[in-house]
Specification:
This protein has 473 residues and is of the alpha/beta class. 59% of the residues lie in helices and 7% in strands. The protein is built from 19 helices and six strands. A six-stranded parallel β-sheet has the order 3-2-1-4-5-6. Helix 7 packs parallel to helix 9, helix 8 runs antiparallel to helix 9 and helix 15 packs parallel to helix 19. The protein is globular and about 75 Å long.
């Protein structure tokens, strides 16, 4: 870097960061629509590449952490190579059905990286301005909580943790741990007692807090939890950007943190729940039932009869849920939809904001199968159409179509906006068995007079429907 004088290097870095900010914001904007999402990811990725490359110019400025970076170029290159290789491998190997777990891990790694930066700075024991020390502590606390909490979320989604752990006084314990972590952080930030032992205790408390906060949360709330930890990771990265005086980290962290916060609010609103209720109520535990009992019985239907019903319908609305993801049935679902379209049937796909295990889960699966974006509608767009729909085909969805959310004030999901599938003339539900959904609430839709149950895994059941439609000719 000797061919650059410090002022020229700083000018190039500052100009690059302005470009990076533009690419990040534009990329995020394009990600808001399925039509432009892929391009948005590429734009944001280009911004990250530029931000990484200009970091190598930092030593030429002779300020900040530049001299330290110059002595660690080898480690930086190795870290980039290892991380890039793992990301490439996981992106190629991880199935779409496991994408929520992967997102949870990536959120955790981001938070862990921010916490690691804070740890490096705090373990130096160098006296810093109060503002810088405070931001380092906040970034370390939030990043550690996001790291360990995301790990628990991964375990729940992967099925490694099969139950939620709750006990009396759990929230009090969390408050005690938080208070202890804040106290240690204050000692560090003020320089009053920033010994290695206090720093270690601070990070251990923060990691334990992430675990104890997430363990009680039920699997049905995982979309909100993943979104929340995404926001926390962004916030932590932004704080550490101020500590390192790195504009790219500040920009990226602010963008991710604000977008994640907005998404978390939208997800909670889609469930008619406050964020506090999601974090502290323990709703959604698969270990036990919730809500009142439902009278009546489920009425099975043969795949041939269901296929005939849809083949001679005028309009069919498909409501996908996590069962479609588990059965990896998205390609078969689109094949069925195309067969129906060739017979003149109008087919649409209805997506609830919290269907699946992460924000946009169903949209990603349908896009992978090649379903055109104009056939996919969200709750507000499609709900009025169910009353004029001949068949609503529910594939592995549960709470998002449960009518008790409208009429049973005793239900934990009362007031939650749902897809009005029960208002269709006929409802066909593909379900593996008669058990309750992930939240443990019985679904009244399955017992209605206009509902028929097609038992079996999603891919096998949809394939039977395909054969039934083809047999009609």
């Amino acid at each position: 870097m000797s061919f650059l004088n410090p002022s020229a290097a700083k000018w190039i870095i500052d100009a690059a960061y302005i470009l990076v900010a533009f690419l990040f914001i534009t990329g995020l904007k394009r990600m808001s629509s399925p039509v432009t999402a892929r391009g948005g990811i590429l734009w944001a990725g280009l911004g990250m590449v530029i931000a990484t490359l200009v970091t190598f110019l930092a030593p030429a400025t002779g300020v900040g952490h530049g001299p330290e970076l110059a002595t660690n170029f080898g480690l930086v290159v190795v870290a980039i190579a290892v991380g890039g290789a793992l990301a490439w491998w996981s992106g190629k190997r991880v199935a779409m059905t496991d994408m929520p777990q992967m997102i949870a891990l990536y959120n955790g790694f981001g938070g862990g990286a921010a916490a690691a930066i804070a740890a490096v700075e705090l373990y130096k024991g160098v006296e810093q301005p109060l503002a810088v020390g405070t931001l380092a502590v906040l970034g370390g606390l939030i990043g550690s909580v996001s790291f360990s909490g995301s790990g628990i979320a991964f375990g729940k989604l992967q099925g490694l943790i099969k139950k939620s752990f709750r006990f009396s006084g759990q929230q009090v314990l969390n408050l005690v741990i938080l208070a202890a972590a804040v106290l240690h952080g204050a000692l560090i930030a003020t320089g009053a007692h920033a010994t290695p032992g206090v720093v270690t205790a601070f990070f251990l408390l923060a990691l334990v807090l992430g675990i104890t906060m997430t363990l009680p949360i039920g699997g049905a709330d995982m979309p909100v939890v993943i979104s929340l930890y995404n926001a926390l990771t962004g916030l932590a990265v932004g704080f550490e950007g101020f500590v390192l005086n790195n504009a790219a980290m500040i920009i990226a962290g602010t963008v991710v943190g604000s977008a994640g916060t907005l998404l978390t609010q939208l997800m909670a609103k889609a469930m008619n729940r406050s964020l506090g209720n999601v974090l502290f109520s323990g709703f959604g535990d698969t270990g036990g039932a919730a809500g009142g009992t439902v009278t009546g019985s489920q009425k099975p239907i043969d795949a041939n009869d269901a296929g005939v019903m849809m083949a001679f319908a005028q309009k069919v609305i498909v409501v996908p849920g996590y069962g479609m993801a588990v059965g990896q049935a998205q390609h078969k679902v689109w094949e069925l939809a195309q067969l129906l379209q060739h017979r003149g049937v109008t087919v649409r796909f209805a997506i609830h904001p919290v269907a699946g295990r992460m924000p946009g889960h169903m949209n990603v699966l349908l896009a992978e199968a090649g379903v055109p974006y104009d056939l996919i509608a969200d709750l507000e767009e499609v709900n009025a159409e169910f009353e004029t729909t001949d068949v609503a085909l529910i594939i592995g969805a549960n709470d998002v179509v449960n009518p008790v959310a409208r009429n049973d004030k005793s239900s934990p999901i009362y007031g939650m906006p749902i897809l009005n599938a029960d208002k269709a003339k006929n409802v066909v539900v593909i379900k593996r068995g008669q058990g309750q959904g992930f939240s443990g609430i019985e679904n009244a839709l399955f017992y209605l007079d206009n509902t028929r149950m097609l038992y079996g895994d999603a891919q096998g059941a949809v394939n039977q429907l395909i054969q039934a439609v083809k047999a009609i000719g």
